[in-house]
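COURSE: Structural Biology Practicum
ASSIGNMENT: Worksheet 4, Part C
STUDENT ID: 0417
INSTRUCTIONS: Below are two proteins. For each, the amino acid sequence is given first, followed by its structure token string. Answer the questions at the end about the second protein only.

PROTEIN I
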Amino acid sequence: MEDRTDLRELLNHINPALLNYEEWTEVGMALKFEGYSCDVWDDWSRRDSGRYHTGECAKKWRSFRRDEGVTGGTIVHMAMEAGWMPPQREAGRVLDLDSELDYVEGAIVGEGWVEHRDIDEPSSWEPAKELIRYLETLFTPEETFGYVTGSFQKANKDGTQKWVPANKGVYTLHVADVVRDLKKTGDIEGVLGKYDHEAGAWIRFNPLDGNGVNNENVTDFRYALVESDNMELSAQNGLIRQLNLPVAVLLYSGGKSVHAIVRIEADDQKEYKERVNYLYDICKKNGMVIDTQNRNPSRLSRMPGCERGDKKQFIIDTNIGCKSWAEWYEWIEAVNDDLPDMEELAAEWDDLPALAPELIKGVLREGHKMLIVGPSKAGKSFDLIELCIAIAEGRQWHGWDCMRGRVLYVNLELDRASCLHRFRDVYNVAGIPPRSLQNIDIWNLRGRSVPMDKLAPKLIRRAKDRHYKAVIIDPIYKVITGDENSADQMAKFCNQFDKVCTELGAATIYCHHHSKGSQGQKKSMDRASGSGVFARDPDALLDMIELPLTDDIIKQEVNKTICRTCIQYLTAYCRDLPWETDLSEDDLLMSGKVQAYCENKLDKWQMQALSRQLEAAVKDTMSLSAWRIEGTLREFPKFPPVNTWFRYPIHTADESGCLQDVDPETEISGHQKMIDARKKKAEKQKADTIDQIEIAFESLQEDGVASAIDVAEQIGVAPDTIKRWFGKGKRSRSEYKKRFETFENPDNQKLYLRRIEDTDT
């Protein structure tokens, strides 16, 4: 008890006048949770004379609940922020999870840092209510439970005597029936039978099938017992809470121990055993030695509401700590990290560590993360292969200088042969001499990929000591774990890339796809599919968006292609031809003049060969796509958009600048879509009507003239409609008048129709 810090002493270090309202109420919650009276909070609050109001603390105190999760640790934290330091601790020292505390994995509470918590007997003793609370917390009404009231004394190894259960007890009663009778009579012994008040009574905490009390009779492996006799009661109570154990019921055994009925929630006995072993291992590493016999799922615990000598067996608390096994396991794993020590900025100010070298000049550093985002057909995989080659050969990539070094390409999508051929194709088409192939490693995992949380440790183990500058993973949809729209799940997924970067010291580069719909109106950070975590997690985000090509741009590119192809042919095969002097600089930029020159100067066979090259080059140019790369960088200033052509299989820079003023396609509004649909429908109706008139006219005409009345009848419109369409009225339809005209025959006063092209008038 003397090791426990008195929170009243810590309040002397906290000035209430410096706290906001929320922090002030948290102090009150913490005091109530730790068992202090309202007077302590009220006396401390009086120090803020400007805001203190008589009676306000008492009113607020009544609204606090002990399950709100604010503990004495909140006051400890506030006091430490105000300058207080715990006893036997160096001033200014930041505790970590390493050797100073003899840290081992699983140790949450260091030796000497257990927060003792007193156990107080209930002020009013209502045994039946204790047992009812226990049963209703652990079981459902229809379930069967077991208990033992008989006992006898057994000698311990040291010669002392202890009370133990005398038999298997009762195991056929339903919870609902027992609770009903207890509420009716208020008498445990009247409902369950007499027990020896010196020995107490026992109860099983997992439901049974009513046929026995063995492990095979357990119907749900729901709970396990945590009990230790090697610590003070207050230390047991405090440590169980510090370990955040998912306790359903915490009760006092009436002896040397506290019994924690901990949620295990196992599917079967095998999983129950694994989880209990894990639970006991964590408890042991934190100083709580547990009897191994307690591993049994049909194990007995002490029954609350019973007396044991001059002590009572009672419930201390219910539903404390984590709400489930899964939540507690995740909490334990998170606490058991390998985090570095905290650092004082003042100590590092004059000797700051060097920044990581720039792997991609002005874009990405070594050991950092980069994400490339784009739609399909953007050539993202080819772009990553180009980046592999740029790093391996120490060349430029999209105009950025790359540091030369070793790179690993993790191929998750292509079969092995296709992947290897792609690398050679990019080398050949780009005209790059393969001088540093030894710098490129490829890990082909198509059909063998696993989720990223499983892949990361395998990757780290294989890549250790290979001194990679970059690890490129293509594509990530093959290894995504969880829902890509969940920020929480995607944050855990992206953390795997951090592990790769940290363990290998290499940059991690990966690609992802755009969300559905037009992207032109979105910011680059909002185009990636799924959670925004994708865009905000990496140190560098490069987004590729397609640029629509106008007829003028395509014509301009075809012109350049023809000029380039002709010049390449003349250079390679017509060295005796003085084309460089015959054609001016302006002529060399005009496809018509260059082609005409070739037709005049080359013989038939040369011209046929050139024509075949031109046909292939123009066809290739017509399949070009244009892309704009925008970036969001954490370490560097934003760069101007980079415009590039994708000419299978490589990307080339837009050297002419013709893409500079092209705007990406934007999303068409719903109203505009409706207008466009109406226009399209009207145009189709007009075309159909013209076709119908043409057909009717052809079947009825004689010498290029047909009765408008007959035509109208055949196409299903009124004669006045024909007159309105082809006449001179305000509502005449010009698109029809281009083909026909109407006239009235004075002899029979009928309206006739004739083709304009066929008449001489």
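PROTEIN II
(use this one for the questions)
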Amino acid sequence: MKILFFPLARIFIGFVFGLLLFRMIHPDCLFIFCSLALSITGLLITYFYGRKHTFPKLLFGHFVISTSILVGVSTAMVHKENSNPKHYTNQINDYEKPRFLDLLITEKLKNTSKNIRYVGIVKGLDAQTSCGKVILNLAKKDSSILPKIGNRIQVNGIIFKNKPPLNPDLFDYGKYLENQEIYAQVYARHIRIVKYESGLWSGFSNFRENIIKNLSRSKITKEELNVLNALILGQQQDISPEILKDYQYAGAVHVLSVSGLHVGFILLFITFLLKPIGNSRRGSLFKLVLILLSLWAFAILTGLSPSIVRSAVMFSFLAIGTHLRRTVNIYHTLLVSMLLILLFKPSFLFDVGFQLSYLALFFILWLQPILAKIWEPENKIIKYFWDIITVSFAAQIGAMPLSIYYFHQFPGLFFVTNLLILPLLGIIMAVGVLAILIACFGAVPYLIAKTIEFLIRLLNNIIHWVASMDNFVFRNISFSKEMLLASYLAVILIILWIKKPKFNRLAIAFLGIVTLQGIFIFQKSDTSNKEELIIFNCRKNTIITERIGKDVTIYSNDSILKGIDNNLLIQSYLVGNFCQIRNKKKLQNLLYFKNQKVLIIDSSCVYTNGINPDVLVITASPKLNIDRLLKTFKPKKVIVDASNYKSYIRLWEASCRKQKIPFHNTNEKGFYKI
């Protein structure tokens, strides 16, 4: 791969390694900046000395790599907000009592069933200066006043620090928030709006809200309006779960994320409008400035998501290269855009959208020309659809391993979806941008509103039709991090062999495939040797799993057992551990596991004396004399799950503490595993 021999590629790899290194070791700040200063000094000395004297280039190369790694570490360190002594996480000792917060609202999030959610920057905490980002949750039933982006508000509420998931193999939402420098959530019922702070971000956000209001006045039905807001303005918060699921199953969820497709259309649209302006030096510069302003205004208007930032940076370089009349190396542009974005926002490296969009784009640039050469039709219409297929396959091959790793599913009819919707999407973008431009000043005319409504309804119907072919959606695919890395290695080696079919490349590609198979076989073998019993943290219910190798027995009540195929807790556990359900059994009072007796006491309080269990599990809030029970049974450990009343749990915990018996509350400590 020639791209790896670019000097910029090596610098970028070193920089990314530095970002990852910081997360692994958390080095001392003074040590890193002193090392960076020494490395830069060595780099400058070897560079200027090497220009006039014979000097080993290898030493200069070492300094380049070490400097890029240290720049990555220092960048991650500078952007780590909770290292600031004034960060709210460093000012709170007791998270259980209510706090008085002064917040600046910066972003609107998707609502939950009970709360309206925002991202806010902490300006003050209990009358002292503070900083950091939090998620503000306002109870729907009590919220009569709702803030806007840019509002400075005061709120009383309890701050809850991010916690790891309380059940095995679930998505770690707390870690996801920490990657965005959000370390806690605030729950409140009422707020007081103090003032409005005007600024570029708040101005664009409220301008976007006015556009959405004008669109809603244009008699576009709610369902189609929400999709339009996602397609053009990047606002997915109000899309219904059913429509979102259809787009996921059809392999078209990328359409709802404003990205390169949308920014490219904006660039073509602006270039078309500016065509009458001459190509003189001043005219060309004027057009470049207007194009760049338009691209970044659109990016800010749509919320600066990772995919839109990537696209805006790349198309900005493309516009500048066109202005300078220089041939733009697309791989250089790709690397420069990633480097610039990560310098200002290193947390984007861990964003799923950022990773998927760059991988898909890289494979389109690298693999699509190879696929296009398989067949070169002369008919322009056939060639257009063939290009759609090759681009779709190239993007999916690049994104598929990562997509399966994160979401454990794969839409088998993605190429059918793209063939059907991409021609339609171009028309929707054209009419949609026109509707948005008119909505900047007032309500959209009836004819345009109904046209865009019809087009989006047609798009949704096509997506729903493809998604309804349930057999082509492959779900619950077990895929580990080791398999992810091995699969990319195998794919890259196979493509390198296809580009230059030589025996040694074929042998190496075959070795990559064998490596992937070996990892899969090892993990299946490792699974077959494991035995464990898990008590899950399930609100208002009790779920216990007994796993022997790849076979799992579920113990729970009838309602849970009937809907077990749609139960997120169980399915995540099965997928994460390469196992399957062998038996479903109603919850029993006594279980034996690896020479341990597990006694389960539920609301019926039925149990047999003289058992002397190793583990006592209490579920469904039974009314029992806990002190007498502990003296009678003398368990080695007491487990309570989330089906119990919190007031009961506090009493049971106090009794266990008195008798020095270990106590495990799944609602606080998470699942319990034997």
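ANSWER KEY EXCERPT:
Q1: The chain has a mean pLDDT of 84.
Q2: The two ends are 48 Å apart (CA to CA).
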